[in-house]
User: What shape does this take?
Amino acid sequence: MRKLREKVITISTNAKEGHIPSALSVLDLMWVLYDRILKVDPTNTQWPDRDRFVLSKGHASIGLYVVLAQKGFFPMSELENFAKFDSILGGHPDRNKIPGVEASTGSLGHGFPFGVGMALGLKMKKSASRVFVIIGDGEANEGAVWESALLASHHHLTNLCCIVDYNHSTDRALQIGDMEKKFNSFDWETCTIDGHNHDEIFEALQKNGGHEPRAIIAKTIKGFGCRQMENNPEWHHKYPKHEELLTLLEGLR
Assistant: This one.
């Protein structure tokens, strides 16, 4: 994981763009998904029986790009083109350009409804495929999130899993409170885990909802793994200067 974190920080530094702490917050979650859970094929990204993953908090895109490249969806060398004018890798994921990306996201609150629609369609087709969506706790201030949660439980979308990146980034503006209780009140099956513990992540993701959709409240740290960035709002959308890069990389865990 240290090498993946290093790659996230390095490509952001070179591009002078990117939301590094948000990417580091969800990097462990996405790695376990793609390494141990998702039924996907990098050589056939339109395989009908694949699982679907939607990064609803699309500003964390660098983390997703690093994982997709590591898993062979496109060459690692493409990461060096991040945020360039003619690159497939923009500040937010684009499903029309990037192999393996299921939804173009970035406008907060929109990716979760995409996931609900995918799950409902797959259920109607009697498909065994699952849909996983990562949302941010700040994103949960959007009404579309709770409309989607209500719709998903109404249709008993047991093939849907919503992972909440609960890094408390929204607390200074509006505290979202007990997310597990909130999803429970919408008739979701819920659990809370350490969002950086791979064994806990894997165990939680393995389970389908019993009769309802499943929500995983992942307790995370914004900027996890980079001590200078952890829980430091200054770094929200700030890229390191080249003279800072070595110090940041030396402090990675």
